[in-house]
Amino acid sequence: MTTEIATLRADLAAAARSLAAGGAVHGTAGNLSARAGDTIAVTGTGLVLAEATPEDITLVALDGTRLEGERRPTSEIGIHLGVYRAGDAQAVVHAHSATTVAFTLVADELPVVHYQQLMLGGAIPVVPFAPFGSGELAEATLRGLHGHQAVLMAHHGAVAVGQSLAAAMENLALLDWLCRIYLDAAAVGVPRRLGPADLRAVVEQAVRIGYGNP
Known about the structure:
Keywords: Lyase, Metal-binding. By secondary structure, this protein is of the alpha+beta class.
């Protein structure tokens, strides 16, 4: 095993424990993966994420062939592999936070309610419910992720991707925060959304001042 793969497995286990500690997953729910070349490190099925260790991380090829690890890969492996085959994402995180699940019960889309949502691709779709681990869910999720860094899954949770494991975790946290803002606002009225002109102004300002660049 290369040092890169060993580090990736350790980082995934730590991220899994972090998700559990933050309440984003419970028991064996949720899964994570990260890519190193053509090798995918992914949490194993039946894994209690709060107890994840590097040895619980399975290695698979892009075609799904298990390369190393005692556990079978997560039942949502189709989503993870689909993301890597379709684009340049380097990590995928799937969680079931109460906030994201609650949002999917009352809306079909998360409109742009804060300018930081542009980092996720704008309005976030809620893909229709399908059983976990099914081809239907994987296909719907991958369609929803087209042009986005995150997507919501009806009655289920959320998936976020990123150019690194840290970025995917940050995108998931941002989505959770945005859903909470929407739900809090909806409790007292109809949430206002940012319109096209507002979003253009944000993009133009970001370019003008080099927003986000040290």
